[in-house]
Amino acid sequence: MLEVDFYPVYPSGRKYSDKPKNKGTTPVKAECNRRAAAKKLAAVVNTNFDTGDLLVHLTYLPEKAPQTYEEAHRDISNYTRRIGYWRRKKGLPEGKYVITIEEQIYKTGTRKGRSNWHFHVFLTEMPRDVAEDLWKDGERVNADRFQPERFGQKAAAEYLSKDPRGTKRYICSRNCKKPVVKTSEPKQLSAAKLKNMCETYVGDNAYWERRYPGYRFIEAYPVWNDYNKRWYLYLEMRKIEEPKKKKRK
User: Fold this and answer.
1) Other CB atoms closer than 10 Å to residue 211's CB: what's the count?
2) Which residues of 216-234 are buried (b: 16+ CB within 10 A; e: fewer)?
3) Out of 2, 138, 223, 239, which residue is the most buried by the measure of CB atoms under 10 Å away?
4) How far apart are CA 121 and CA 141, in angstroms?
5) Is 5 in a helix, a strand, or coil?
């Protein structure tokens, strides 16, 4: 993954603060925290999972849904233990997982005020039907092939709860690798140029792929900051992998 941040700096080179001065949880601050968490989640997932691995969506029938976070956490922990047992029984190496948990509270109807839960689970490659059958605690499940070329910050944000319980927005298995981040020296760009990029070229695949040859455009996120009246831009791209040559017999 190639991530590029465009942000304003003082003449000294110090970055302008993009955070409001007021403390506490404001809607703006909460959204900033969610974007940061989505960025980290995308990095963790792309480091540990690839084509062939699974993205499994789990939930409950409304009448069978647990009503506390502790019960939901217990169910998903039991699910990952069953996955681990199945892999050991088949003589497969230890698998990895990353899980996001989201609570849905019914607003209307006969179940008003009651909870339901959604789990999105990234799993090391295994048969899709097995991953579905091992979800014993609920009755709604769908396993898809993970598509790394589509998984960036925007996709990750869709799986993160807007109102997470506790401090953890997602759960990783202990054997998940930490993303390796390599940084490069910052380059100067005029404010007018950045403004033009934010207003004109945000969705222009060809523009970004010319600017960063060898990479495929995924998404660009422009932000106008009312706090300091300046533009910010975050760009996501993925390196274009050359097709593997077939070995001659």
Assistant:
1) 15
2) ebbbbbbbebeeeebbbbb
3) 138
4) 11
5) strand
Question: Bridge partners of 55?
Answer: 122, 144
- Indicate the Cα dihedral angle 138, 146, 180, 35, nearest 10°: -70
The answer to whether 4 and 211 have CB atoms below 8 angstroms apart is: no
**Direct distance between the N- and C-terminal alpha carbons of the chain, in angstroms, rounded to an integer:** 34
Give CB contacts under 8 A, 24+ apart, made by 184-190. 186/9, 189/6
Residue 134 and residue 36: Cα distance in Å, rounded? 32
- The answer to whether 217 touches 149, Cβ cutoff 8 Å, is no
User: Strand, helix or coil at 118?
Assistant: strand
Q: How far apart are CA 141 and CA 57, in angstroms?
A: 6
pTM exceeds 0.90 for this model: no
Q: Which of 33, 52, 29 is nearest to 41 (CA)?
A: 33
Rounded distance between C-alpha atoms, residue 86 and residue 140, angstroms = 20
> Which of 154, 144, 159 has its CA nearest to residue 202?
154
CA distance 94 to 85: 10
Q: Which residues of 177-192 are buried (b: 16+ CB within 10 A; e: fewer)?
A: eeeeeeeeeeeeeeee
| pLDDT tens digits, one per residue of 143-172 | 888 888 777 777 787 888 776 666 678 889
Tokens 């029938």 correspond to what residue? 61
Q: pLDDT tens digit string along 101-150?
A: 988 888 888 888 888 898 999 999 999 999 999 997 667 788 888 888 77
